[in-house]
Amino acid sequence: MNKKSSNVVWHNATVTRDRREQKNKHKGGLFWFTGLSGSGKSTLAHAVEEQLFQQGYNTYVLDGDNVRHGLCADLSFSDNDRTENIRRISHMSNLFVQAGVIVLTAFISPFRVDRQNARKIAGTDFHEIFCDCSLDICEQRDVKGLYKKARAGEIPFFTGIDSPYEAPKAPDLIANTGSDLENSIEQVFGYINKHVQL
Fold first, then answer.
1. Model pTM?
2. Catalytic residue at 109?
3. Which long-range contacts does 39-42 make (Cβ < 8 Å, 24+ apart)?
4. Which tens digits make up the pLDDT trace of 93-140?
5. Domain 26-99+111-179, CATH class in plain words
6. Where are the domains of the chain?
């Protein structure tokens, strides 16, 4: 969906991003968790958010399943709809960042080009965090029972089974979520903390 709205003009607010960040005492930023289903994206993002929140940061986690209950409820899991899903999330995330919020997104986001477009939208505020976990481990976990259904042919276009996952070639951070979640939490928290200081 590349249609452009017509007859619209960007309205510049008097409450600027800089003013919001000064009030928050930290910068906004977009920290994009990507990885296979079951790789620990949501678990890691929420655990890190808890630590950030306890430190007084303004944060919000955008979770793939949660977003598909509302904003993206009209989308399937076809390649085109996956791309549209990430396009919408990218723009919404960027609005949060402009409001001075630290945004953590937990989306499989399987295609490199879609993640590259998200980076274009958010610019230097975008940080790609690869939740590195093998398909074997993700499938052993199968927290939601989705791999079992996909193997049985009940879920088409399932990433890692009959739809590809394109791992990042040069992510900003790699979190080894296959074996050491606690270390990953501390690693990601430290990375974010470093990048949101005024």
1. 0.91
2. yes
3. 39/131, 39/132, 39/133, 39/138, 39/177, 39/178, 40/131, 40/133, 40/175, 40/177, 40/181, 40/184, 41/106, 41/107, 41/108, 41/131, 41/177, 42/106
4. 999 999 999 999 999 999 999 999 999 999 999 999 999 999 999 999
5. alpha beta
6. 26-99+111-179
